[in-house]
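Sequence of L-fuculose-phosphate aldolase (Paraburkholderia phenazinium).
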Amino acid sequence: MNESIETELHELAQGCRVLHMEGHADLTRGHLGYRDPAGRGVWLKRSGIALAEVRGPADFVLLDWKGQRLSGEGRIYKEWPIHTEIMKARPDVRVCGHSHPFHATLFSALDVSLEPVTNEAAYLGGPPGRFEMTTGLIDTPALGAGLAEALGAASTVLMRNHGITFVGGSVAQCVLMGLFLERACCSQLTLLSTSLPYHSTPRAELEAKLGQILDAPLVANFWAFYQRRFNAADLAW
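Predicted 3D structure, token representation.
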């Protein structure tokens, strides 16, 4: 493994632990994948361990575009097609994540549009896609391709009664998209539970917010915050 890939996988491991810390934990489920820079396939978190237990490069397996192991040890997730099919459909995606955060998974069961009632929803750059082909595992290339189609050009997609998938051009951007979607869903669910009327960000103001998170300095600033928060928490695993 060359030094560049090793560095990326260390950050990917940290991304897994940040997701755990921020409410994306679900037993040993949930995974991040990183596009191999040499075009061989995807480096995917190994199965059988929690997001919080991912410590470094040894916890990732390199798969080719057909899901065959090229490098690394450990079990392979049945949902590897999430990563391969999205990355084949979206050349701009370098990192892809899938998790089951509580509020976003609940929101996926509703026939309600996610509205920009908070900055987090605006930071997504647009509404999440909706995937409804199955509520089960995305364990075939056909289902992975369907998920990629539902994602489209968006940064996130809600998977009916299942969870979410989120993407980015870097570890930081991908993880932030997952965190923001969960917070945006939590905010709207809270408002809906009051049965009171509420307002979304006016379209004229939304235009100024859309895409802000894609600004590299802001991504770096937010990601550094989560890194500091994680380091201070010193999770004991």
